[in-house]
């Protein structure tokens, strides 16, 4: 029986040695994997830092652009208000000119029509006198 125990112990020792070899190989592979993971994490940190730097610059530029756009919109709004005021003033001037034209037309139209009637009457009289004088010379 001691030989049986010795053989069982030897087999157990060989199994333990095989397991230790397997564990060493697995640890070596896990060490390589961990190195690759560390490199990958370092690259990720660098990429995130670059993105953070770029995002900060981009947001700063976007903020500046937004401020400029807001100022431009305010100036355009002021210009539209000035333009609206100018158009209102122009409309009031045009209305006053139109009213003045109507007033002048009313005041001048009557006497002008009377003068035209008088001139027309005088022209007809001269024409009648001229015709009677010419018909009197022909006889």
Describe this structure in words.
By secondary structure, the chain is an all-alpha fold. It has one helix at residues 2-138. 99% of the residues lie in helices and 0% in strands. The protein is rod-shaped.
Briefly, what is this?
It contains one helix and no strands. The chain is an all-alpha fold and 139 residues long. The longest helix has 137 residues, at 2-138.
Strand content: under 5%
Radius of gyration based on Cα positions: 57 Å
The number of strands is 0
H/E element sequence: H
By helix and strand content, what is the structural category? mainly alpha
How many alpha or pi helices? 1
Which parts are unreliable, with pLDDT below 50 for 5 consecutive residues or more?
none
Mean pLDDT: 88
Q: What is the 3D shape? A: rod-shaped
Main sheet properties: none
Helix percent band: over 70%
Distance between the termini: 187 Å
Set down the secondary structure blueprint:
Elements: H1 2-138
Question: Which terms would index this structure?
Answer:
139 residues; mainly alpha; rod-shaped
């Amino acid at each position: 029986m001691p030989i049986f125990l010795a053989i069982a112990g030897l087999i157990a020792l060989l199994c333990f040695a095989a397991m230790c070899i397997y564990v060493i190989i697995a640890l070596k592979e896990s060490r390589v994997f961990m190195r690759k993971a560390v490199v990958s994490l370092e690259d990720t940190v660098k990429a995130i830092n670059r993105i953070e730097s770029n995002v900060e610059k981009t947001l700063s530029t976007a903020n500046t652009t937004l401020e400029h756009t807001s100022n431009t919109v305010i100036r355009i709004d002021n210009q539209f208000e000035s333009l609206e005021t100018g158009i209102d003033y122009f409309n009031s001037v045009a209305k006053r000119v139109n009213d003045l034209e109507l007033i002048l037309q009313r005041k001048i139209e009557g006497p002008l029509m009377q003068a035209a009637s008088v001139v027309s009457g005088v022209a007809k009289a001269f024409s009648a006198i001229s015709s009677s004088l010419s018909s009197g010379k022909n006889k």
